[in-house]
Write a structure and sequence with these properties.
This protein is α+β, with helices and mostly antiparallel strands. It has 7 helices and 11 strands. The relative contact order is 0.15.
């Protein structure tokens, strides 16, 4: 398989894989050799990966000496032939992140982490994206530079309103959130809640199961988020009426 040149939208496709993923393989440098471990991940508004890691873990000691890391995001689970599915190897540099909003996004995606998020030997880390090697399927292989891989548009207004939007949807529109999961994603089960919103979509969770809905166009403000959520609600109700 030869490597193709990046095409328009490939960065979006790779980010969608990153934002859907709750876990990834983390590669660090251990005494000059690759050291790979499984870690829980979430994503920030610009799609930068977030991880809550113990300072005692081997991978943490590794990147304390060399901050260059890689992350493998695997989207092949639902494919009968895994090599036909998408995967992204992300290259970047890791550093501690003390941003409260980033921590809240991680805990919302991984609620079990709330039990140790405040411990002194745990910290939140963020990977500054440098480059990505994206295999979108057979014959669709490209390097993607950071400018295309990161979501660069400013979304500070949406970020500031995220908690309010999520609480509002879960408290006042729980029926709509349930319809998102059931009618738009084909998910079963009860207790679906919205756990986050970013410029490119919303995250949902029911127990240990997570799901994501991508917006057709970027959403940067609370007003735009309201319009997008109303459109999703309308689409979910229309699907329910047709079935």
């Amino acid at each position: 398989m030869s490597e193709s040149r990046p095409h328009a939208g490939l960065g979006v496709e790779a980010r969608r894989l990153m934002r859907r993923s709750g876990f990834a393989a983390l590669g660090t440098n251990f005494e000059g050799r690759p050291y790979v471990s499984l870690v829980a991940v979430s994503s920030y508004y610009d799609a930068s990966p977030l991880m809550m890691l113990s300072n005692l873990a081997q991978h943490t000691r590794n990147f304390a000496a060399d901050p260059r890391v890689s992350l493998l995001f695997d989207g092949t689970r639902e494919f009968a032939e895994p090599l036909a599915g998408p995967r992204l190897t992300l290259l970047g540099r890791i550093g501690r992140c003390d941003d409260a909003a980033a921590r809240d996004r991680f805990v919302a995606r991984h609620p079990d982490s709330a039990a140790y998020a405040g411990f002194g030997d745990f910290a939140l880390y963020r990977v500054a994206i440098e480059r990505g090697h994206f295999v979108a399927g057979f014959g669709r292989i490209s390097w993607i530079e950071d400018s295309e891989l990161r979501f660069a548009a400013a979304a500070s207004a949406l970020a500031a309103a995220e908690t309010e939007i999520v609480v509002h949807m879960n408290q006042d529109h729980a029926d709509a959130v349930a319809l998102f999961a059931e009618r738009l994603l084909g998910k079963s089960g009860d207790g679906w809640i919205m756990t986050g919103i970013d410029p490119e979509g919303i995250d949902l969770r029911s127990g240990k199961e997570t799901a994501r809905i991508d917006f057709p166009e970027p959403v940067l403000t609370p007003a735009a988020a309201r319009t997008a959520l109303v459109a999703l609600t309308r689409a979910a109700r229309e699907k329910r009426a047709m079935q």
